[in-house]
């Protein structure tokens, strides 16, 4: 990883314009897209790619938006997961789901079949592990589709630049793109951001974020069982592998990192961090094979010198805290009361964060919740043909989160531009891996163990 001091944050766009175009750019430019998508009463059709819990939830929220909208295609690498998702979404939504068996696609190229069912101006939902985000996004642009994609979007520099380029291609075609960073659609955080940006607590001098709880998801994985390829094993347990999902740090912590940077209205220019692996066997003494640390402590620094401290931990039996805080020259605030963006937000006249010092508490009206709000905002932009793209912000939030992870994993100071310009891509040629038995991007040793971060020993990359 290149860790030299960045020339400036403002040089990024110039750099991207000089990096060359994607190989598929000529194909993207030739697709005709209507100037107005699903205007008026026209029905919007939706395809779900990635049918786990996140994708299923996103599809439900899509179908709860105003106006005629229907789920017409689904895709996943697992037939069982797809069928379970279909049954869950279909229940209680008459007229909103029309996904016959021949429009349920299974496999690594199933995303193409699902998107081929749609017409230009429809919506594709991407809720697969992040490694496939750029592959699916490129195909959606070729097809002239609007997109909703789950976070995080990237885990390394090369794919971050690729996604930024694709975002520019989508903008040229007036496609609408939403990203699942729902904090930006939390009405109470919108109120807080306005007040903070208007100076109610003065200049921000410190921010703090915490996500500390027991292991969840496939935070740590046991050795690969028989009957599944290493490639499919890593996809199914994407939390455990940096190439697939950015590890637990990127997947778990991006929301708090994103909304606190929103309050500052800036992205950090560098990150320093510590972290470690403490408990890496299960109750039977079997060693886990994942690449995660159990704990992380990151100090982000902004261009003006302001600090943002983030602490993450996945360990049983420890004190849990899952909140975010602001400290300004004239007061303080609580952004998330609990969880990724838990209401209410509040401001205080001093640094005590006590009720007696509270000057404001959020009470938004007509709030359908952040997950529904982000879909309402996207579909409204599609129906009214309003400019709408969250790609750049989504990539930058993903990149800043990855900076903290990489700083802990390498023991080095990681800069924004240094990480963006790194040539280390975790899963090269992912668009060519189309079979379940394709070679996995990460190779185990003879004992089934995968390379892990070793701070100070592995300095230029995370493993």
CATH class of the largest domain: Alpha Beta
Which regions are unreliable across 5 or more consecutive residues at pLDDT < 50?
2-33
What's the Cα radius of gyration? 22 Å
Q: Summarize the helix and strand pattern as letters.
A: HHEHEHEHEHEHEHEHHHEEEEEEEHHEH
Helix content: 25-40%
Describe the strand arrangement of the main beta sheet, using strand numbers: 14-13-12-11-7-10-9-8-15
Distance between the termini: 11 Å
Description:
This protein is an alpha/beta fold and 463 residues long. The chain has two domains: 16-183 and 372-388, NAD(P)-binding Rossmann-like Domain (Rossmann fold); 184-369 and 400-420, Dihydrodipicolinate Reductase, domain 2 (2-Layer Sandwich). Helices cover 32% and strands 18% of the residues. It has 14 helices and 15 strands. The strands form two sheets. A nine-stranded mixed beta sheet has the order 14-13-12-11-7-10-9-8-15. A six-stranded parallel beta sheet has the order 3-2-1-4-5-6, sandwiched between helices. The longest helix has 20 residues, at 391-410. The protein is globular, with a radius of gyration of 22 Å.
């Amino acid at each position: 990883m290149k860790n030299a001091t960045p020339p400036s944050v403002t040089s990024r766009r110039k750099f991207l314009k000089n990096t060359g175009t994607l190989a598929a750019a000529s194909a993207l430019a030739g697709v005709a897209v209507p100037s107005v998508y699903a205007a008026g009463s026209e029905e919007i059709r939706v395809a779900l790619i990635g049918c786990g819990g996140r994708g299923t939830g996103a599809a439900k929220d899509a179908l709860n938006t105003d106006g005629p909208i229907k789920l017409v295609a689904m895709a996943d690498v697992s037939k069982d997961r797809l069928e379970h998702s279909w049954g869950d979404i279909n229940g209680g939504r008459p007229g909103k789901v029309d996904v016959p068996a021949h429009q349920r696609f299974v496999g690594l190229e199933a995303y193409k079949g699902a998107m081929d069912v749609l017409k230009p101006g429809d919506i594709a939902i991407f809720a697969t592990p992040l490694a496939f985000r750029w592959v699916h996004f490129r195909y959606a642009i070729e097809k002239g589709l609007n997109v909703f994609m789950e976070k995080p979007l990237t885990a390394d520099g090369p794919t971050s630049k690729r996604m930024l380029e694709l975002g520019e291609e989508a903008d040229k075609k007036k496609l609408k793109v939403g990203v699942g960073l729902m904090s930006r659609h939390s009405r109470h955080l919108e109120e807080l951001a306005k007040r903070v940006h208007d100076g109610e607590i003065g200049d921000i001098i410190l921010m703090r974020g915490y996500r500390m709880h027991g292991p969840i998801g496939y935070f740590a994985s046991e050795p690969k069982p028989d009957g599944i390829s290493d490639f499919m094993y890593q996809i199914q347990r994407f939390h455990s592998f940096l190439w697939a999902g950015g590890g637990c740090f990127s997947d778990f912590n991006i929301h708090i990192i994103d909304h606190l940077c929103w309050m500052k209205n800036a992205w950090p220019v560098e990150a320093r961090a510590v972290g470690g692996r403490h408990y890496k066997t299960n109750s039977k003494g079997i060693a886990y094979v994942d690449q995660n640390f159990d704990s992380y402590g990151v100090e982000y620094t902004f261009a003006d010198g302001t600090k943002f401290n983030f602490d993450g931990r996945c360990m049983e039996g420890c004190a849990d805290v899952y909140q975010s805080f602001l400290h300004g020259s004239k007061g303080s605030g609580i952004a998330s009361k609990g969880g990724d963006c838990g209401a209410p937000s509040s401001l205080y006249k001093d640094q005590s964060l006590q009720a007696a010092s509270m000057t404001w508490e959020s009470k938004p009206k007509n709030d359908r919740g952040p997950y529904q709000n982000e879909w309402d905002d996207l579909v409204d932009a599609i129906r009214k043909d309003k400019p709408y793209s969250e790609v750049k912000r989504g990539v930058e939030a993903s990149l800043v989160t990855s900076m903290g992870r990489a700083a802990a994993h390498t023991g080095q100071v990681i800069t924004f531009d240094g990480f963006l310009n790194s040539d280390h891509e975790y899963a090269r040629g992912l668009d060519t891996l189309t079979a379940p038995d394709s070679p996995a991007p990460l190779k185990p040793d003879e004992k089934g163990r995968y390379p892990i971060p070793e701070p100070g020993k592995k300095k230029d990359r995370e493993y």
